[in-house]
Design goal:
- This protein has two domains: about 1-50; about 55-260, Porin.
- Strands 1-4-5-6-7-8-9-10-11-12-13-14 form a twelve-stranded antiparallel beta barrel. It has a two-stranded antiparallel ribbon with strand order 2-3.
- The protein has about 260 residues and is of the alpha+beta class.
- It contains one helix and 14 strands; from the N terminus they run H-E-E-E-E-E-E-E-E-E-E-E-E-E-E.
- The radius of gyration is 29 Å and the shape is globular.
- The longest helix has about 45 residues, at about 5-50.
- It has one helix spanning about 5-50, and strands at about 55-65, 65-70, 70, 80-85, 90-105, 110-125, 130-145, 150-160, 165-175, 180-190, 195-210, 210-225, 230-245, 245-260.
Length: about 260
């Protein structure tokens, strides 16, 4: 190519100056961003071991009834549950799907839902070597059949020595009663051998809604552990009022078999 002269030479010179200014500007920006990029890459590098420790645990359970907080959610009928959870160093997120046959309430008393699914996420940490805590948020919904409803739930747990935990739960019914409900639970378990565990729960419910007024509940049970299977025999007892006008004295025995994967 020959020598550039005249008007073309002027355009060529201006173009070079523009490219030169652009190069210097982006070089300066890159130099300013380099420390930030390096810090981000370093943080990502430090997170790799934690990401590598994320585990997915899931299980399937068949039981003669589906009980939660002292009340049946399957009208004393057999139930099947499948659930899974991603667990990291401090965070966890998971789901549950249960064949509930959950009875409707209030104006929906003659209807029922076929399934309940739950999405939950939370964080756990240590206070000391023997004391830890956990916070969790969950969303529950009843679907299928002729009844549907959902509610939100927040909980905080304190895990103490001697395999004791104390939990406070606050729930909010959005589409059923638009009320809050509170629960306090004391949970205990004690390994009796490498394959046998005893456990129990005592809870106090203060719902004050048409779902249920003030009542107490408890359960005691034995679980036999064989490899990845758990066979649980549990006695449930609830007393108080399931509703403002409905006395509650529920005494029920439940057998469940769980397979962990």
């Amino acid at each position: 190519m020959g020598r550039i002269v005249g008007y073309d030479a002027l355009n060529y010179s201006l173009m070079n100056q523009h490219f030169d200014r652009t190069r210097k500007r982006y070089t300066k920006h890159f130099q300013q961003l380099t420390p930030v990029v390096m810090v981000c890459l370093l943080q990502l590098w430090n997170m790799l071991p934690a990401l590598a420790e994320i585990n997915y645990n899931h299980s399937a359970t068949a039981s003669t009834d589906y009980y939660i907080r002292g009340l049946t959610r399957s009208t004393n009928n057999p139930s099947i549950r499948y659930g899974g959870e991603l667990q990291g160093e401090s965070l966890f997120v998971g789901f549950n799907l249960v064949t509930a046959n959950y009875p409707g309430i209030g104006p929906f008393a003659d209807h029922s839902a076929d399934f309940e699914y739950t999405l939950h996420a939370g964080y756990f940490g240590e206070i000391s070597d023997s004391i830890s805590w956990q916070g969790q948020f969950a969303y529950h919904e009843y679907v299928g059949g002729s009844f549907s409803g959902d509610y939100f739930e927040g909980s905080a747990s304190l895990h103490l020595p001697f395999n004791i935990s104390l939990t406070y739960l606050l729930t909010k019914n959005e589409h059923i009663t638009d009320d809050f409900a509170q629960y306090v639970e004391l949970n205990m378990f004690q390994p009796l051998s490498s394959y046998l565990v005893a456990s129990g729960t005592f809870g106090i419910a203060r719902t004050d809604t048409i779902v249920g007024s003030n009542y107490e509940y408890m359960d005691v049970g034995l679980s036999f552990l064989v490899k990845s299977f758990s066979l649980d025999f549990r006695q449930y007892l609830s007393f108080g009022h399931a509703g403002r006008l409905q006395p509650l004295a529920d005494d029920h025995f439940v057998v469940s078999l769980t397979k962990s994967f």
